[in-house]
Design brief:
Two copies of one chain form a homodimer. Chain A is of the alpha/beta class. Chain A has helices spanning 16-23, 64-68, 81-96, 99-107, 131-142, 170-173, 196-201, 219-227, 269-285; strands at 28-31, 50-53, 72-74, 123-127, 146-151, 155-158, 162-166, 179-182, 206-210, 231-236, 256-258.
């Protein structure tokens, strides 16, 4: 095959209407804005063979139509996982060292020496042993945190996580955890997995971190758990509705850290995401198997 | 020796006057408030053989009179070092992930997605390769930071730090560092070691962390370096005057994190400090050599 045969016509669209029109002839589709509902809310484009997502979570694309179709869905791996893990470590340290109150006291010009917690030796329940969960697991272990991995399947000796616990065991694990970290994909199975029951099982004074999807959490239940003091801090990078609506009570709560879905975003991330897409595009054009193919039947390890 | 012989009369004093009076008969002295000048500002008590400090830094005690006397000075090791290292890691992550602006935007109920920096792969110059420096060195290395240790002596293959650089090399090292961490003891040799020249050598946009002593820094020079934007963030746990005076410009600067000398203080720290003192007291009463004896001739490795 000559180099001249290995090309793709690329059309960049700026609006949903334009995208819908262009998709009628498209065989491949790069979805840059991972929450754009253009695929989910419209009939399947007739010639579409491949959708590549400029992110990790595919919940905004993976309709039952797509899931049951022949369309191959690929996502972006190797760009966002480690940055998210560092972000989570930073969040846990911010809480352990009470930095937020230090900033508050600074604004009031008050010198208030206090006592902090050690993160080393704390127990963290990590729900979601996927690629992001693995980086979180490894980084927290590296700084002496006791991380308990929880996923769909139980395993005594997982090659990556060692002892893996099942979701059914949360009842016994949540009361032991100083922090709970949620890094699950959002599926019909995981929607509102953190509900009133699960929050009530958490250790009093513990922290809750969500870097997965807002839809994993019953936000009203979380609000109640924060108000009654069971959960000391909620560190949230994702919300059921994004941007978080102006009127939402989270905004004005000191015990909630409202992070605008940025845990994965480093300076320069776009370049790395495009590079991953280009690699797959070259494979696609030259007929090689695509990388980072999403298992459309199960997005929950 | 019977157990009954192994005892010490303990007198607890609440004021400097009381301490001065009681010190006239005292052979040993535990200084709980490590900044209390009762020893430094008064003639040496005639019978005093031993001073134990409830902290690491002995600068507030080590007058030239004490240094040239026979009095043994011991400090508290193994309690504060690792907590300080965790605190420093938290500070660096807070800056890398721009948490402070996130809190600011939250107060304004503004959803402002931004881009963060990765801490892994950053270069940090660590000035002060003592016991605290070692914990910082190891912890930052564990999370992928490239840490360059700088102290008085140079070494190609230090057993703890590997390549060690001398203070003379700062001129070449500071321009390469994303952050500079100061963990030196305060002596006549190290006073205002961070001055206008050294701040001007720092990389534009870098961070400066001080968990040593305020006296290590020319604070006016730091203020200038912050104002002209060379230093992006100063994360200060210690100040030339503590508590930081109400009128000090640091309080109202967003690029300064005013931490009230708490980097070492964990919940329960007093118990551990007392335990260390009791261990030494038992040694002293039973005539065994004291542990954690301070080298009064050189407090700067």
């Amino acid at each position: 095959m000559s180099e001249a045969d290995n090309f793709a016509d690329v059309v960049i669209t700026q609006s949903a209407d334009e995208a819908i029109r262009e998709l009628q002839d498209a065989e491949g589709f790069l979805l840059w804005d991972i929450f754009n509902p253009v695929i989910r809310n419209n009939p399947l484009p007739p010639k579409l063979e491949w959708i590549h997502i400029a992110g990790v979570g595919v919940d905004a694309v993976l309709s039952s139509d797509i899931a049951s179709s022949e369309i191959v869905v690929t996502n972006t791996r190797g760009v966002f996982e480690y940055p998210i893990a560092e972000y989570v470590l930073g969040l846990l340290l911010m809480v352990a060292k009470d930095f937020r109150n230090t900033i508050k006291f600074q604004h009031a010009k008050e010198w208030k020496r206090r006592e902090a917690f050690l993160l080393r030796g704390q127990t963290v329940v990590l729900i979601g042993p996927g690629a992001i969960g693995l980086e979180i697991f490894n980084l927290l272990n590296a700084v002496g945190v006791n991380v308990i991995a929880v996923g769909r399947r139980q395993a005594m000796n997982d090659p990556l996580f060692g002892r893996r616990h099942s979701m059914e065991e949360l009842e016994y694990l949540l009361p032991e955890a100083d922090a709970v970290i949620l890094s699950l994909p959002l599926t019909s199975e995981t929607a509102k997995v953190m509900n009133t029951t699960r929050f009530s099982q958490m250790k009093p004074g513990s922290s809750f971190v969500n870097i997965g999807r807002g839809g994993l959490v019953d936000e009203d239940a979380l609000l109640d758990a924060l108000k009654d003091g069971r959960i000391r801090s909620a560190l949230l990078d994702v919300f059921a509705v994004e941007p978080l609506p102006k009127g939402h009570p989270f905004w004005s709560m000191d015990q909630v850290f409202v992070s605008p879905h940025m845990s994965a975003d480093l300076h320069g991330w776009r370049v790395h995401v495009v590079a991953r897409f280009i690699e797959n595009l070259e494979r696609w054009v030259t007929g090689k198997p695509l990388e980072n193919v999403v298992d459309k039947t199960s997005r929950f390890s």
